[in-house]
Amino acid sequence: MKASREVHVFARTVGDKPTQFYCRAVAQAVATAHMADHCLGPVWYGKKLLVLLNMDADKELSWQLERLADLNPYLLPRVQQELLRKL
Fold first, then answer.
1. Rg for the chain (alpha carbons), in Å?
2. What confidence category does residue 87 fall into, taking pLDDT thresholds of 50, 70 and 90?
3. Which is deepest, 12, 18, 21, 86, by most CB within 10 Å?
4. Largest interatomic CA distance in the chain
5. What single DSSP character describes residue 35?
6. pTM: predicted TM-score of the whole model, two decimal places
7. Residues in contact with 44: Cβ distance below 8 Å, sequence separation at least 6, in sequence order
8. Nearest-CA neighbor of 82 among 32, 34, 33?
9. C-alpha span between 37 and 34 (Å, rounded)
10. Is residue 53 exposed (0-12), middle (13-18) or buried (19+ Cβ within 10 Å)?
């Protein structure tokens, strides 16, 4: 958690929004070790980053979900449910 908090603090000092969202995604990923609910933070900040960069965030998310289905089809419905709730 200390590392995650430090990255979030650093993100506040960054003036460049893409870099700030990237830092926050990293901080959330690190925080996943503390609490599983943080695992969707990188998806949320990643989406914000892609939108900011005028990239197709929905296409990227679809690609990620397809990979998840390949890795663990039983986990996919749970992740989709959480994404609908949080995004």
1. 14
2. low
3. 21
4. 40
5. -
6. 0.63
7. 25, 28, 86, 87
8. 32
9. 9
10. exposed
Please give the mean pLDDT across all residues of the chain. 88
Measure the CA–CA gap between 16 and 71, rounded to whole angstroms: 34
Give the phi and the psi of residue 29 in degrees, each rounded to 5: -60, -40
**Residues 6+ away with beta carbon under 8 Å from 8:** 23, 24, 27
Sole residue written with tokens 């980053």: 49
Q: What is the pLDDT of residues 34-64, one digit of tens each?
A: 777 777 888 888 888 999 999 999 999 999 8
- Our CA dihedral for 54, 27, 68, 86, rounded to 10 degrees, sits at -70
User: Tokens 């893409």 map to which residue?
Assistant: 18
